[in-house]
Write a structure and sequence with these properties.
eight-stranded mixed beta sheet, alpha+beta
Length: 485
């Protein structure tokens, strides 16, 4: 058996199954053996259905032998972020109050992936309420980064990123409102795609049976290869049954065949979230490579947006979007704090309190600002295909689970800064509904992976994915963490 097989892309694994190079049960057992051997160190996969998965693998093998038409990911073992409903598994979002809440049916993303042939055999870890760049909770414990067990794998799709990087699963699905797909992809050295808002239905990705689709948040794929992102988007994207009565999705395909055809802006840092030079240097190295490839690269190109205002709007709308699940006591506290805090206080804490307790009138005013910025971005994309920028201010940072998140710090260029500052890089594309793809571009001197955020125009999902595909082919592809290779 090839040593590299567990680290192949889902596309390669599906091809091996179709060509009868490996059986579906054999492939599943390979991953289950790796989970048994390596997951105790990582705690990435927190629930499994081994018996059911082996039955499905045997049925998938029979389908191959009988010559039935196979889905694009037939026989590929898959895990999925804990926050998606999967029949027979609890959906807790890391909250002990929901540890016994079994899902009655699959979320739409899970079902579409199953219909495409995956063998969904387990769930991966998350932080409480999906609200951290670390993945730990009282129900399932803490997940470690396979590149350095003393560091976070990211969040909130941290278990997804860790499982992929360590070769414990074939493909993953996560969610993203504050870089929760992008951040683990960056920290773990894998690929991830945050879709344009609204193009992948989040039906069944909710807590306590909630059914309304929220602002800013999206669901999308993580993988070890950019082709997998395209395949997964083909499978996941599109309306739910009700919306599908009235509209169909038609995302434009990229026509570009080489990096030299792209015109890109490059942004290395921003005063709202200064980026460590270890990350800046790797993005600059990529920009220099693109210049050599004759791509058009502009390090001054920017949308006509005040980034401080963008960050202000994003933090408030982000907190408003997540305030619905807040206990009444916390909402009342936030309201009182908002009245107490001076208008001049623009700290994350102050903006968090204001966002938690927004009036609808204020939300509408912020939404107007958001959509003006959305139009400014679209004007920018009249001249440029993509914007390349950081995912976060550093590579993966050491575990720090003490105290309140907004009081924690990380080290950027030898200075301690609030960990919440880096939320800026999530909102830079997210608040205005844009798609962005993360591709690994190198390792820091400490041997930690760094990804680049590739932002495309609204509904340009396949353009940012195409750029990632070309980077994978011509610049850097996924590399396994040495301890798990």
């Amino acid at each position: 058996m090839s040593k590299s097989l567990p680290f192949q892309t889902a596309k390669e694994l599906a091809s091996a199954v179709r060509r009868k190079k490996i059986g579906c049960l054999e492939l599943l057992d390979l991953y289950l053996e790796r989970v048994e051997a390596h997951n105790p160190k990582l705690n990435a996969i927190i629930a499994k259905d081994v018996e059911g998965a082996r039955k499905r693998a045997k049925a998938a093998d029979r389908a191959v032998k009988s010559g039935k038409k196979l889905g694009p990911l037939h026989g590929v073992p898959m895990t999925i972020k804990e926050s998606f409903d999967v029949e027979g598994y609890p959906t807790t979002w890391g909250d002990p109050a929901f540890k016994d809440s079994m899902a009655a049916q699959n979320s739409l993303v899970a079902q579409r992936m199953v219909d495409a042939g995956v063998n969904l055999f387990g769930k991966t870890n998350i932080p409480l309420n999906l609200a951290d760049w670390q993945s730990y909770n009282e129900v399932y414990g803490s997940t470690n980064n396979p590149w350095d067990l003393g560091r976070t794998p990211g969040g909130s799709s941290g278990g997804s990123g860790a499982a992929l990087a360590a070769g414990l699963t074939g493909i993953e699905a996560g969610s993203d409102i504050g870089a929760s797909i992008r951040n683990p992809a960056h920290y773990c050295g894998v690929f991830g795609h945050k879709p344009t808002w609204g193009v992948v239905s989040p039906k069944g990705h909710a807590l306590a049976g909630n059914v309304a689709y929220g602002d800013i948040g999206v669901v999308g794929p993580l993988a070890r290869g950019a082709d997998d992102l395209e395949i997964a988007m083909d499978i996941m994207a599109g309306p739910d049954a009700i919306d599908g009565r009235g509209w169909t999705l038609s995302l434009p395909r990229s026509k570009k065949k080489s990096l030299r055809e792209f015109k890109v802006g490059v942004l290395l840092t921003d005063p709202n979230a200064e980026v460590d030079h270890s990350v800046q240097e790797l993005i600059q190295k990529l920009a220099d490579f693109l210049v050599k490839q004759k791509a058009k690269v502009d390090d001054k190109a920017r949308p006509a947006i005040d980034t401080t205002e963008l960050n202000d709007v994003y933090v408030k709308l982000l907190r408003a979007a997540t305030s619905g699940r807040m206990p009444d006591e916390m909402w009342k506290f936030s309201l009182a704090e908002t009245k107490r805090l001076p208008d001049a206080d623009k700290s994350y804490y102050a903006q968090m309190m204001r966002g938690n307790s927004l009036s609808h009138r204020t939300w509408l005013q912020l939404n107007e600002k958001r959509h003006r910025m959305r139009l400014a971005w679209d004007e920018f994309f009249g001249d440029y295909d993509l914007m390349l920028c950081p995912v976060a201010v550093t590579a993966a940072f050491p575990h720090d689970q003490q105290g309140l998140r907004h009081l924690r710090t990380i080290v950027v260029d030898n200075k301690k800064v609030p960990v919440v500052d880096q939320i800026f890089w999530a909102g830079y594309s997210g608040v205005v509904h844009l798609p962005s793809t993360v591709a690994p571009i190198g390792l820091t001197k400490e041997g930690l992976p760094v990804g680049v955020q590739i932002i495309a125009r609204q509904y340009g999902d396949y353009e940012s994915i195409r750029f990632a595909q070309l980077l994978e082919k011509e610049y850097r592809s996924f590399e396994p963490p040495p301890a798990f290779a």
